[in-house]
Amino acid sequence: MDWPALILSLKLAGATTLVLLPLGVILGRLLAFHDFRGKRWVEAAITLPLVLPPTVLGYYLLIALGVASPLGQAWQTLTGQTLVFSFSGLLIASVVFNLPFAIQPLQRAFEGVGQDLRQAAWVGGLSGWKTFRKVELPLAWPGLLSALVLTFTHTLGEFGVVLMVGGAIPGETRTIAISIYDRVQAFDTAGAGIMSAFLLLSAFLAIAVVYGVGARAVRLRG
Amino acid sequence: MAEIADASGAGLHVRLAQAGPIPLAVELACRPGELHAIVGPSGAGKTTLLKAIAGLYQPREGRITCGPSVWFDAAAGTWLAPQARRVGLVFQAYALFPHMSAQSNVETSLASQPRAERAARALALLTQMGLADKAHRRPADLSGGEQQRVALARALARTPDVLLLDEPFAAVDRRTRRRLQQDLQDLRRTLQVPILLVTHDLDEACALADQMSVLHEGQVLQTGAPDEVMARPASPLVADLLDLTPG
């Protein structure tokens, strides 16, 4: 087991989840409750990482974060380091390729709350914030948990985008998925096997949790 | 803050007008203690009218006053949020919060009261509705009639200035409906506020209402006492609409 790679992957997955959950709640809620011009385009853009080849997404992220890009230049001026091939760059890339995994479950969950319940809360005198806290969030929590589990697990296993944007710098950007690839290249099938089994188990548990939570939510709504 | 209405008098006064997207041409008044039925076929704009009064839908033109308070005045740019209007609204499918007990559902409308008093007040309202022993049940564990009573208790919890009922008896069986209608008649005697009842059931409107407005494509075609409207429809269209069978 490549422990530094596993720790790095867990750190990346944790940070990505931490950034994406609040963003997912805001955007998922916005898409669930509001109609606006260009909404379909926004939804399509968010879904794009699901269908785009990881190398294509990685290529564009590499361009967008590279030293020649405004973002890459600004980052270099501020920190003296490049954004690509760094943990920070990897985190930005990770947030982008996980957008659909966080936002879609949350959007569906907020849509499931329905306008009538929100309106009933408003007419009853609850403010927008209290309605969110007492009605929307308690009913949308299965979506929140799904978003959390899916984002975390998907980050653990992502390979293509991570390799394109981060390379494989030990301790900085070499995640467990990259390490598996490296071990296979080095004919260390036993090492690759242990790490693959770990990812397989975590993915299986994640999906079991998401399904379990979904079934519980259905029972709650009667 | 609500400004003071000019000579509008007591009760609810509603005047709404817009060409689209949902056409509206409505003018009606409802005195405290009066039950005013809004009848019309599906898609006539009945629910939109209730939502406009509750502050959930803002029409382009018009004015809504309740007693001395102006809730909506397009000309003056006045629009009060639903939280600022004291409205009790019973939704068509009740819109009870499924994750809360019956008592907690009622308590949500008591947020302006001291925390310590909320539980007792909610329980008192549920007791009044004959649901004291079911206060801790969730909506999914209550019958249709019981859910309707919880929704009514929640609507009354804010001591509303107006009570709006959107097809409240549509989802219950005939026997429960008769009992609930009797409860509503009893409630009217104690609750001196204007009550608007949206229904597509003419028998229900005739049995319960003091006044009745016939709504068609967002337009009030005729208003009057139910017997009078039934006996003397203002136009062939009204006569045709009144012949509609329930359902």
Question: How do the strands and helices of this protein lay out in sequence?
Answer:
The complex is a heterodimer of chains A (222) and B (247).
Chain A: H1 3-33, H2 39-51, H3 54-65, H4 70-79, H5 87-97, H6 99-113, H7 115-123, H8 128-157, H9 160-166, H10 176-185, H11 189-221
Chain B: E1 12-18, E2 24-30, E3 35-39, H1 46-54, E4 61-66, E5 69-73, E6 78-79, E7 87-90, H2 102-107, H3 115-128, H4 144-157, E8 162-166, H5 174-190, E9 195-199, H6 202-208, E10 211-216, E11 219-224, H7 226-231, H8 236-242
Describe this structure in a few short sentences.
The complex is a heterodimer of chains A (222) and B (247). Chain A is an all-alpha fold and 222 residues long.
Total E-strand runs of chain B: 11
Unreliable parts of chain A: none
- Overall residue-averaged pLDDT value of chain B: 87
User: How many separate domains of chain A?
Assistant: 1
Q: What's the end-to-end separation of chain B, in Å? A: 42 Å
Look at the structure and give the mean pLDDT of chain A.
Answer: 88
Termini Cα gap of chain A = 46 Å
Order of helices and strands of chain A: HHHHHHHHHHH
Structural notes for this entry:
The complex is a heterodimer of chains A (222) and B (247). Chain A has one domain: MetI-like fold (Orthogonal Bundle), CATH 1.10.3720. The mean pLDDT of chain A is 88. With 222 residues, chain A is mainly alpha-helical. Chain A is globular, with a radius of gyration of 20 Å. Chain A starts with a helix and ends with a helix. Helix content of chain A is 82%, strand content 0%. Chain B has 247 residues and is an alpha/beta fold. Chain B folds into two domains: 174 residues, Rossmann fold (3-Layer(aba) Sandwich), CATH 3.40.50; 62 residues, no CATH class. Chain B has eight helices and eleven strands. A six-stranded mixed beta sheet of chain B has the order 7-8-9-3-10-11, with helices on both faces. In chain B, strands 2-1-4-5-6 form a five-stranded antiparallel beta sheet, with no helix packed on it. Chain B is globular, with a radius of gyration of 18 Å. The N terminus of chain B is likely disordered. The chains are: A mainly alpha (222), B alpha/beta (247). At the A-B interface, helix 7 and helix 8 of A face strand 7 of B.
